[in-house]
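JOB MANIFEST
job_type = single_chain_structure
chain_count = 1
residues = 194
[input]
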Amino acid sequence: METTSNVETAKMLSQLVRLVSLGVAEEVYAAAVIPVADGGRESITCSQFEVLRYIDRHELPTVKEVADGLRMSSAAVTKAVRGLSEERRVPLVQRGRGSDRRTVRLTSTAAGHDLVRVVRAEIDRRVAGVLERMGEPDRAALTHGLRQFLLSALVSQREGDIACLRCGVDHNDLCAVHCAGFDADLCLPTVGAE
């Protein structure tokens, strides 16, 4: 059996991350277009999509909660929200009412929810297509290896916070961050928790 050094394995992991995040995801974001009434189309940036996905998967977050959850500045989230709402002919995010912008709750519109669903499905479809080209033993070994890698890497709450996908209502007990005991406060579903 061929062995690789830890350095070579680290390079391959970096290539995998770049392929999925910069290759597949950015390509899907760029292709995601929102039709508007006059026959035109609007697009979405990667950072706007991540903000939209977070808002869609969490119940009525504030700008600060989105910023904390995505490890972004409040100013960057505010700019993304403006680009997802006021600056669009088809708004993807809606702001709640209130005079204090720090406490205004955000929600995705029906168009925003649909876009999150379609984009996630397309990314999943493309990655699943790559996995389908692998044999079952290799897929099982990859799954096992990735889980073990994550569990080995998640040694503190800091790593858990970084690795957490902030999946909100999509959270499940098979999540490696959950299994390692480092769920981020905002990771767990909030629907019906009040």
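[summary]
The two ends are 54 Å apart (CA to CA).
The helical segments are 6-31, 46-57, 63-70, 74-84, 110-132, 136-153, 157-163, 176-179.
exit_status = 0
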